């Protein structure tokens, strides 16, 4: 595991970068004020960030009579970070400069039958070839890849993959061979990358105890404590989808009965809608969930009752982890949250006091992720940025974030 | 919140003390070897621990030709730590020397009708008078008090108390006034103190992700991550007892339906036993649970079926937090665990694979607390010891524990 001083260093770097991205150029004293770090710590970190090519000097500021202050900004002409989101039906790529602006974006369609690591490597190599062609003159600092299923981060292993029936594939090694890339590769699953994205570049920044609820085909809860991703003993923390909320509930795709995912994952929601009287059919899950959102907006009875039922299950499940973990903030994200969050959240807020203990409820904020950015990919790139920043030696006290 | 360097310092101190308590006298190089700390860090910490009166020099060791090595031991003649466990029917006191040996123990009986803070203060003052009389010549370094219900640690407030219907009592201030004690007072609830006890002096030492399941009248899960008690945003983390495992389950004492506590807290277990055909009656809950354990041992059908049913519910509830938190170790403690743990644990082990995801199960150890010590009281004293050790300035790198 990481050392605590490395954790603090990363936290301090991300805090400075975040402030620098939001408002630049900025002087060292400005950054010290915003981060709560000492000017000495900021100066040490800035020196190293400049050496690493992450930060550049960007002009001088008149300091009112004294020596003019050097202003700093992100090095947008420096190296690039690549984020990759691997899903069942697509592989998405984004290349970022060090201001985390998207320089290039490309998507490969994946056929459901392409279920071998080799096929997936073909798609990643093809996407990466396009990225490298467009950004030929830029150094790639790191590649972060989000994979579905269970990932052994240290070993770079895709331990299990629910969609493709993989076991223990040395994916990082295969990918490194295939791409022949000099830059380091970081592998993790999407629950972890999206949480890293929220922690460093989303609503989670500065939150001591963060929970990120991902609502999609599956559901999960990414956790971050003390400004650090919480992975658990085997990087499988957050498997909230397979916690039981009703031993008599429907059978889940994991084979167990009564998992919350069986009720509030997209297929579970659509099952509930059908049970409430909706007999239409759709090409895709995604279009069906969109139709449910549209029906709810116009007050169609089956849709309204489905939202109520899903919100009731969601409230039980959210209360269960809130009572256990007592977080400061719960952020809802994922494509189902994007489509139905507006409908679900007011119902959820109304129901939570019935299930969450008063003391935990008092400290709790809940919100929808309103970032326009793809947090899974940005989070994957953030893992690569973490790796790059880990070359820094300075520590200092801890930033306020 | 505490600073990270303070966390590391505490972790290092407790690691050294733990090894020193287990095997003393020990030399500085011995301690460095056992803790994984550098000899320099150990030497700095030892110097400060000697200054604080926690550690003493205890003779010389021949180092085979070189300069003889100074041997160290706990300062058993130094100050004392007091732990207090406040429950509905008793207040228990233990005074410890700095080897954490019990010097004196006393118990006050509390009448169920004595439900005001004043009455409770009377009992604590009476017990403390007895402690001070017996240990008149010893300095009290700190007093740790475990209270039922919700506790605001920083403010020293008893926020709510389920048994006595209190709200927001400034208990620490009242207690300080009443006792006129020079030593600092540390207040927390029993879930937190028992977890501190397990973390520093029990099975939790060196465990990165620890869960302590307390089974009693109520149930809860104390969490400790990175060698540090996890409190949550409002010190109410661990309220596992009021997580829902069955929306159609029995009504809980918190007023909600389907909490796991309503099934596996002592009253819930006894209700299940009655439903299985046991129609005997007992003076106390405790004697009833003992009778259930005895019946299970002799293979009485209602008892065997009750244990099966409780183990089934326990497996669901344990799986829920294991899937979420992915701990390395789950320790079962509390008076119901003491009585029924031997019966429940094999059933629990058998059932967990049906509910816990494979990757989390692979890393998981579960065990009964086999400490002969009262971990609630020892843990309360450990909080006082933490406070005392926080005067130390040295940090160093992190101990292996
Ligand atoms: Zn499941
Ligand atoms: Zn309850």
Explain the overall architecture:
Chains A, B: InterPro entries: ATPase_NBD (IPR043129), ROK (IPR000600), ROK_cs (IPR049874), WH-like_DNA-bd_sf (IPR036388), WH_DNA-bd_sf (IPR036390). The structure is a homodimer of 401-residue chains. With 401 residues, chain A is of the alpha/beta class. The first copy, chain A, has three domains: 4-75, Arc Repressor Mutant, subunit A (Orthogonal Bundle), CATH 1.10.10; 80-195 and 376-390, ATPase, nucleotide binding domain (Nucleotidyltransferase, domain 5); 207-370, ATPase, nucleotide binding domain (Nucleotidyltransferase, domain 5). The first copy, chain A, has helices spanning 4-22, 28-35, 39-51, 117-134, 171-179, 190-201, 261-264, 266-275, 285-297, 301-325, 335-351, 358-363, 375-389, and strands at residues 26-27, 55-61, 69-74, 80-86, 90-96, 102-109, 140-147, 150-152, 157-161, 166-169, 185-189, 209-215, 219-225, 228-230, 329-333, 365-368. Chain A has a five-stranded mixed sheet, with helices on both faces. In chain A, strand 9 (157-161) and strand 10 form a beta hairpin. The longest helix of chain A is centred in the C-terminal third of the chain and has 25 residues, at 301-325. The model of chain A has no long low-confidence stretch (mean pLDDT 92). Bound molecules: zinc ion (2 copies).
